[in-house]
Amino acid sequence: MVRVGILGATGYTGVELIRILSNHEDVQIKYLSSQNFNGKKFEDVYPSLKGFCKVELQELNIDDIVENCDVVFTALPSGYAMNIAEKLCNCGVKLIDLGADFRFDDFKTYKKWYETDKDDYGSVSRVYGLPEIHRQEIKNAMVVGNPGCYPTSVILGLAPALKGEIIENHIIIDSKSGVSGAGHSPKLGNMYAECNESIKPYNVAKHRHIPEIEQELSNLNCEDTKVIFTPHLTPMTRGILSTMYCKLKKDISIESLHEIYSEFYKDEYFVKVLDIGEYPSTKSVYGSNFCHIGLEIDKRTGTLIVMSSIDNLVKGASGQAVQNMNIMFGIDEDKGLKMVPVFP
Predict the structure, then answer these.
(1) pLDDT greater at residue 204 or residue 191
(2) Which one of 45, 75, 126, 280 is CB 3.0 to 4.6 Å from 309, fit for a cystine?
(3) Can you tell me which residues form the catalytic site (predicted)?
(4) What is the CATH code of the structural domain delimited by 2-124?
């Protein structure tokens, strides 16, 4: 039985972790922390989990975590997981960070984009936690940087094309996300009256997921790869739809392209390459850990169009974190994650 702790348990990703883990037979939730609800039972804060999680929320205490947990999920603002990672690792406790602290191969990139005053990762060895690409490294990892939601949709969508040397390394990405991607804390722009019946771009050309996307695409491509990335806020609760526009290096049929993608993901339970002419939607993956990928070729302009959909709180965050935990502890990768998407 894997003993689990969740730091920042009452944010959206923390709640989603508990929803998923409550259905995981090999896990026992032993420790939950919350800054705002200390002393309350989790089920009293979130009635949707009434009867599923009676654990009391506590103030964060590292010694208690070490004593009670085999693995800790950190669902906290960037900068905190880095402070505790070394002590946890030295005590044999594994860490899966849902923030950005351990996503970067080069700490200077993290320091620049997240404006931290920290110097480096110290003695902590981290792995980027996208299972379909880094499964072998994750198996032996003590610290995993769980990918961002946008990067998950983009990297999974582009990996076969880059590995197959089908596209040029200059890529345009248009992504749309539900409001839950902005987190649980109230913000003016996320209020119903502000975002309902509206769609708007934000952080154009400066979103913090850009360097993460470029890092992983460059690793796949074995050369420096740049992207133009524009995220949009859409008036829905969950979901991400990313559409990528890529210049083809060579003439290729949609049938051959589909075969390349199908072969690349043939052993991946959570990635579904849709039939030719079928396009993904956020509703088709709602509440699940699946990624759906659709393909099209614009012969007139020599452009590959890749469409990828995920649930930002599951495959884009908490579900992927549980998938990583399963790999790290030698548990069947889909354990606790065989949720059928919710429709309608």
Answers:
(1) 204
(2) 280
(3) 149
(4) 3.40.50.720
Model pLDDT, residue 9 = 94
User: And the tokens for 293?
Assistant: 């990928």
pLDDT digits (tens, 9 = 90+) for 145-167: 999 999 999 999 999 999 999 99
Spatial neighbors of 43 by CB under 8 A, at least 6 apart, are 49, 50, 51, 52, 53, 54
Specify the CATH superfamily of domain 150-312: Dihydrodipicolinate Reductase; domain 2 (3.30.360.10)
Q: How many helices (H) and strands (E) does the chain have?
A: 11, 14
Q: 267 is written with which tokens?
A: 């052993």
Please tell me the predicted confidence (pLDDT) of residue 39.
85
Nearest residue to 74 via CA among 135, 43, 32, 112: 32
The model carries a pTM of 0.96
Closest CA to 12 of 206, 195, 177: 177
Q: Where along the chain do the CATH 3.30.360.10 domains lie?
A: 150-312
| Average pLDDT over all residues of the chain | 94
* Residues 127-154, mean pLDDT to the nearest whole number: 98
Alpha helices in the chain (DSSP H): 12-21, 42-45, 62-68, 81-90, 107-114, 131-139, 149-163, 192-195, 210-221, 254-264, 319-328
149 labelled catalytic: yes
Report, as an integer, the average pLDDT of 8-27: 95
Which three-class secondary structure state does DSSP give residue 19?
helix
Sequence-distant (6+) residues with CB within 8 A of 84 are: 62, 74, 95
221 pLDDT more than 80:
yes
Q: Provide the pLDDT for residue 28.
A: 97
Look at residue 115 and tell me whether its pLDDT is greater than 80.
yes
Q: How far apart are CA 86 and CA 17, in angstroms?
A: 23
* Strand partners for 310: 240
> Which residue of the set 53, 69, 149, 246 is catalytic?
149
Q: Are 174 and 306 in contact (CB under 8 A)?
A: no
